[in-house]
Amino acid sequence: MAKAVLITGSTSGIGLVIARRFFEAGYDVGLNSFEPEAEIEAALNEVKETGSDRGNSSRVEYFQADLANNNGSELVEDFIKTFGRIDVLINNAGVQKVAPIEEFETSDWEKIRAVGLDAAYQTIKSAVPAMKNQGWGRIINIASVHGLVASPFKSAYVAAKHGLVGLTKTVALETAQSSITVNAICPGYVLTPLVEKQIEDQANVHGISRDEVVKTIMLAPQPTGKFVTPEEVAELAIYLSGDMARSITGTSIAVDGGWTAR
Ligand code: NAD
Asked: Per the domain annotation, does 206 fall within a domain?
């Protein structure tokens, strides 16, 4: 029987590339977001095309859920109803807002925390009993280099990602003897729609051009001087989901071009 993976926030960016990689590897895949119909259709087709040349018999289904609304548990329940199991849970959905703390809107703070941290608490809480019953499971939280270090003007994002790293460690300890691993992947800057929008916000907050944002803010702390690619993140997620990664749990793995080595 194919293993089943649920990836939150997976109709765009890193989540979509992870979905394609797992489909290619033969997993049944659950996509999630709250995007308009056209984008959902495009994402479903993009994932299916990944395996079409090999006659891939895996399934891909879409699960609509706006994770800003405390419905992570229902999302996991719907997924289990459809696939009958949950082998890998990848908490990837996240939103960003760049503003000084004095101007940081409460609504932005709450949304970033709800999507980036509360939703992971809810999905993990619902997935762990099913994984324990199956006797095997993998939980991967897409945190960020901002789960390990801070940058100015990102109070909510940095707080939520640090919280996600803490949640990762705690659940890893609680599930260590149940053949379940729980890890966080902490990417540096990856050029996705989330970052495209941030270039504009950063340019406004810092009063500099888009090119300067990329050069002096985004790529300056990454010693490689290059964006991380979503494919690199997806490959690590596949590795962490394999049996040979059974002793890797409770860790936060930086994929940050050397950022946190400083
Ligand atoms: P993205 O904006 O391209 O994709 C985010 C996905 O999350 C989209 O599919 C969107 O529909 C979904 N989403 C947003 N709000 C949602 C909600 N309320 N409910 C359900 N789905 C929702 O972003 P990305 O850059 O691919 O980021 C993916 C993850 O990686 C995020 O958690 C982000 O914090 C993290 N990350 C990104 C970078 C980067 O540089 N891009 C770096 C480190 C960590």
From this structure: no
The alpha carbon of 113 and the centre of ligand 1 are apart by a number of angstroms equal to: 13
Report CA dihedral (168, 117, 96, 154) to the nearest 10 degrees: -70
pLDDT digits (tens, 9 = 90+) for 36-46: 888 899 999 99
| Max intra-chain CA distance, the chain | 55
**Is 27 marked active-site?**
no
Q: How far is the CA of 34 from the centre of ligand 1 (A)?
A: 12
| pTM of the complete model | 0.96
Tokens representing 30 are 């659950």
DSSP codes, 44-61: HHHHHHHHHTTT----EE
**Count of domains observed in the chain:** 1
Question: Which residues on adjacent β-strands are paired with residue 183?
Answer: 140
Residue 81 belongs to some domain of the structure? yes
List pLDDT tens digits, range 78-101.
Answer: 999 999 999 999 999 999 999 999
Q: Is residue 217 part of a domain?
A: no
Rounded Cα gap, residues 64 and 249, in angstroms:
30
Ligand 1 pocket member 144 (CB < 6 A): yes
- Cβ pair 88, 5 in contact under 8 A: yes
Q: Which of 14, 40, 232 to mutate to test the pocket of ligand 1 (most atoms within 8 A of CB)?
A: 14
Contacts of 132 (CB under 8 A, 6+ apart): 175, 178, 180
Domain with 44 in it: 4-188+228-261
- For residue 208, what are the contacts with CB-CB under 8 A and spacing of at least 6? 202, 216
**Domain CATH number, residue 102:** 3.40.50.720
